[in-house]
Amino acid sequence: MRQEETDVGWFKDVFDEHYGHIRNYLYYLSGDIALAEDLTQDVFVTLWEEQRKNRKTTVRAFLFTVAKNLYFKHHRRQNIRFNFASSLNQEHDQESPEFIMEMKEFDKKVQLALAGIPEKTRAVFLMSRIDKMTYTEIAESLNISNKGVEKHMNKALNLLKEKLERKL
C-alpha cells in the first residue's frame, strides 16, 4: 500500500471520528452553525496539511486546538460580539422604551465583561449557561476534567460578578 493511500485512510478515520465533536465545539463557541461548519472544514484542511508532523501528537488535542485558534482568529477579524438578547426571553414590543434602553445598556456591560475573561473560561461559561451543557459534556468537548470545568465556571462567575458590580 502506498503512503498516499495510507494517509487518505488515516485521514478518513480521523475525520469520521472527530468531525461531529469539532463542529459542536465550534458551534458552542460561536452560536452559528454555518460558521461552525465552515471552521470545522478549515480544521480538517489544516490537519491534512499538517498530518505527517502531527501523527505523533494526540489528534484530538490537535483538532480542538486548531478549532479554538481558528474560531478566535475569526472572532477577532469579524469583531463578533456575543448576543444575549435571545436568552433574556423578553417581548420588546410590549416593554417601555426606557426598559428597552436599560436592557441594551446592560447587555453591552455583560458583553464587555465576558470579553474580559480568559477564552477557555468564557467558553466553559457559555457552554454551560447558554448551551445548557452538563459539566461532563463540556469536559469531553474541551478535553479537560470535570474539576477543570468546575474551576473555570467558578472563575467565570467570580470575574463576571466582579466586573458587573464595578460597571453597575
Automatic annotation (TrEMBL):
Keywords: Sigma factor, Transcription, Transcription regulation. Transmembrane segments: none annotated. The keyword DNA-binding does not apply. GO terms for molecular function: DNA binding; sigma factor activity. Residues 15-79 form the RNA polymerase sigma-70 region domain. GO terms for biological process: DNA-templated transcription initiation. The keyword Transcription regulation applies. Pfam families: Sigma70_r2 (PF04542), Sigma70_r4_2 (PF08281). Residues 109-158 form the RNA polymerase sigma factor 70 region 4 type domain. It comes from the Bacteria. InterPro entries: RNA_pol_sigma-70-like, RNA_pol_sigma-70_dom, RNA_pol_sigma70_bacteroid, RNA_pol_sigma70_r2, RNA_pol_sigma70_r4_t2, RNA_pol_sigma_r2, RNA_pol_sigma_r3/r4-like, WH-like_DNA-bd_sf. Belongs to the sigma-70 factor family. ECF subfamily. This is RNA polymerase sigma-70 factor. It comes from Gaoshiqia sediminis.
